[in-house]
Write a structure and sequence with these properties.
- The chain is an alpha+beta fold and 664 residues long.
- It is 31% helix and 23% strand.
- The protein has four domains: 207 residues, Jelly Rolls; 189 residues, no CATH class; 117 residues, no CATH class; 76 residues, Immunoglobulins (Immunoglobulin-like).
- It contains 16 helices and 25 strands.
- The strands form six sheets. The protein has a seven-stranded antiparallel sheet with strand order 12-15-24-17-18-19-20, with no helix packed on it. The protein has a seven-stranded antiparallel sheet with strand order 13-14-25-16-21-22-23.
- Strand 19 and strand 20 form a beta hairpin.
- The chain is globular, with a radius of gyration of 26 Å.
- The N terminus is likely disordered.
């Protein structure tokens, strides 16, 4: 691949940072969703209905908890419907959450009892807010959009499935979900504790199912498994079961775990075993948390999170149990037959589970999930392999995916550039494949086809990747980061994953991707967001790979101050032959790049050689460019992109697209 090819690919395949499919290939056309299929299927509703009718314990006791709750009453009076909901500061916050509780609980009451008056109450709430809500606001907007709305969407799904919400009402609801809620959670919450991410993940999955949006469903699954923030499965739950928020407090820890359980339940209904990911890591987190809060001793290691803001030296004090354990017990013990000693003890202790705190999570788990072992014998919903993840490693493309529950065997197909797909491997029984037959610098597309009569005609999403970097481009570590950096390019987005103490302070510790030596101008766009709130990144012209090499760097850096809501600056810096760093220019970016200290919007960078100088520019819209200053050119200097997490020992991913390199 030539430099011209690289530029053409990067520019042609650029993606909008706010679109649900950003960074993803097109999803398969033939992959229908099961409806109802968010938290509850038709079979689930039948099980509840039958259990209540037959007064079968413990479902009957769980139902009494639901029926007695104030938000489960057919005469529930909804609050005035508004155009905005917000949290911190509050705008219709308790009003919407109470209404979401009532919509969900009354829709369950209607499905279980058959009484239309409950359906009428739930429908009025769903249609009222669907017709009015326009936006979500506040510092805690992701939580505002990810908690109560999850119950709201489940209510709409139940009402539609039971014939209580017609096509027009469902369309109005779907339009509101995309208009008001989705923009708030589309990039998740990599800047926060993990329960924010996990709330966004499950609500995105719920919207995807309700709106039949396969690309959105894939986006949420991929983030759960491979995302940057604290809510990624293996970032939130460590190998020993300790959780990212275990050192914070036990209530938030259980909340983050509960959201993950809801996400797994949705995927299970849609034919995918997300519960089993990372060797049942979710169960490990629940067992650890349950055992500790029952009074047991657990292994705790001091930790620092992905944002760099939260450090815990000791585990937090024990606390009370949230009603979130029945779902986990039902799946791992009931469906799978696995040992769940601590979870089982909690279930026995708190059964029947009642309401959640506010609208934090669904609650009422005894009614919703008890006797779920019947589900182990149901035929899984047909699905294609999902969450296909491609990574270039040691000269090969490594693929990982979620296999359908109904058919573990699948085949891998590959296409080079825009050529047709051809099968390169069939009969794969696992969930990974290593393709060592790729050519460096070539662009490939992969897709997986399941093997089974149920899945005939289905395929996974198409996943693009370039085998390494373009011809003439290279990468190298700067300094001695304790976590090795890595680089991936998918034909549209270049991802640089780097740890390190920082850049230009006065030396560098991070990762560098260099354009061809003859590059005289380089521009690129930062694609939000990034997890580290200490991250430093941008374009650089450097003379050598030594940590203190002379260079000219145009960087985004955090301003020092409040760790939660610091500002971000664009800085032009130089380092001379003696290692001395000087700031040529400094521009506070303010709310032009985001609010509450978060990098939420894109920024364009440009370095260009002009008459023995290097001219730096940046743009906040890709059209209007601002001069950031100029510095003396470096004879023999190489242009490229430079990234550091700003957190020793913790890596952070920074993404660039619209990359354009010009030769001399």
């Amino acid at each position: 691949m030539t430099r011209r090819d690289f530029n053409r690919l990067a520019l042609a395949a650029g993606v909008c940072f706010l679109r649900p499919e950003a960074g993803l290939a097109a999803a398969p056309e033939t992959a229908p969703f099961l409806h109802p299929g968010i938290l509850h299927t038709a079979a689930d509703l039948d099980r509840m209905r039958d259990g209540v009718k037959q007064k079968r314990p413990p479902i009957a006791e769980g139902f009494e908890k639901l029926r007695a709750h104030p938000c489960s009453q057919a005469d529930y009076a909804p609050h005035p419907f508004g155009a905005e909901i917000g949290r911190n500061p509050s705008v219709n916050f308790p009003a919407f959450d109470n209404d979401a509780n009532a919509a969900y609980q009354c829709s369950l009451m209607a499905a279980i009892t058959g009484e239309k008056r409950y359906a009428s109450a739930a429908r009025a709430i769903v249609l009222g807010w669907s017709g009015s809500l326009q936006t979500v606001s506040g510092a805690d907007a992701v939580l505002m959009a990810g908690l109560g709305p999850f119950k709201f969407i489940n209510a709409a799904e139940i009402l539609r499935a039971t014939g209580e919400l017609d096509a027009s009402g469902a369309a109005q609801c779907g339009a509101m979900l995309r208009r008001a809620l989705l923009p708030t959670i589309i990039d998740f919450a990599p800047f926060a504790n993990g329960n924010w991410d996990t709330a966004a993940i499950k609500t995105m999955l719920a919207i995807a199912v309700f709106c039949d949006d396969r690309s959105l469903f894939e986006r949420a699954l991929l983030y759960y498994l491979y995302g940057d923030g604290d809510g990624r499965l293996t970032h939130y739950i460590y190998e020993n079961g300790q959780c990212q928020e275990s050192g914070r407090d036990q209530q938030h820890t259980q909340l983050g775990l509960a959201h993950m359980g809801d996400a797994c339940e949705i995927a299970w209904h849609q034919g995918l075993d997300l519960y089993g990911a990372a060797e049942n890591r979710l169960l490990r987190g629940f067992e650890y948390t349950a055992a500790y809060n029952l009074g047991g001793d657990v292994e705790f290691h001091p930790d620092i999170d992905r944002t760099g803001k939260y450090r815990h030296r000791v585990i937090s004090p024990r606390g009370s149990f949230r009603p979130v354990y029945e779902q986990i017990y039902a799946h791992y013990h009931g469906r799978r037959g696995l040992a769940t000693p601590a979870v089982a003890r909690v279930v026995e202790k708190i059964r029947p589970e009642g309401a959640a705190r506010g609208a934090d999570h669904p609650g009422f788990g005894t009614l919703l999930y008890a006797l779920e072992s019947q589900d182990a014998h149901r035929r899984p919903w047909p699905a294609a392999p999902a969450a296909v993840h491609a990574e270039m490693r040691k000269g090969a493309v490594e693929l990982r995916w979620l296999a359908p529950r109904s058919s573990r065997n699948c085949a891998v197909e590959r296409a080079e550039a825009d050529d047709a797909f051809r099968r390169i491997k069939g009969g794969i029984a696992g969930e990974e494949f290593r393709d060592g037959s790729v050519k460096p610098g070539s662009r490939y597309r992969y897709r997986l086809l399941p093997h089974g009569s149920q899945e005939r005609g289905l395929s996974s999403a198409t996943v693009p990747i370039v085998a390494g970097l373009a011809a003439g481009w290279s990468e190298a570590a700067l300094g001695s980061p304790s976590v090795p950096g890595k680089v991936q390019f998918d034909g549209a987005v270049l991802t640089i994953d780097a740890a390190g103490a920082g850049l230009m302070n006065p030396s560098d510790e991070g990762h560098f991707v260099a354009a061809t030596p003859g590059c005289s101008a380089l521009s690129a766009r930062f694609v939000p967001q990034t997890a580290s709130q200490s991250v430093q990144f941008g374009l650089v012209c450097r003379k050598g790979l030594e940590a203190n090499a002379p260079c000219v760097a145009l960087l985004i850096v955090p301003a020092r101050g409040d760790r939660e809501r610091h500002g971000w600056h664009m800085r032009l810096l130089t380092r001379d032959d003696h290692g001395e760093v000087q700031t040529v220019a400094d521009f506070p970016l303010g709310q032009s790049v985001g609010t509450y200290g978060r990098l939420e919007r894109p920024v364009w960078f440009r370095l260009q050689r002009q008459r023995r100088s290097i001219v730096a520019q940046f743009s906040l819209d890709g059209t209007t460019w601002k001069d950031a200053g100029r510095a003396a050119d470096l004879e023999g200097g190489v242009m490229g992109m430079m990234v550091s997490s700003g957190i020793p020992g913790v890596d952070a991913a920074v993404r660039f697209d619209s990359i354009h390199a010009t030769g001399e």
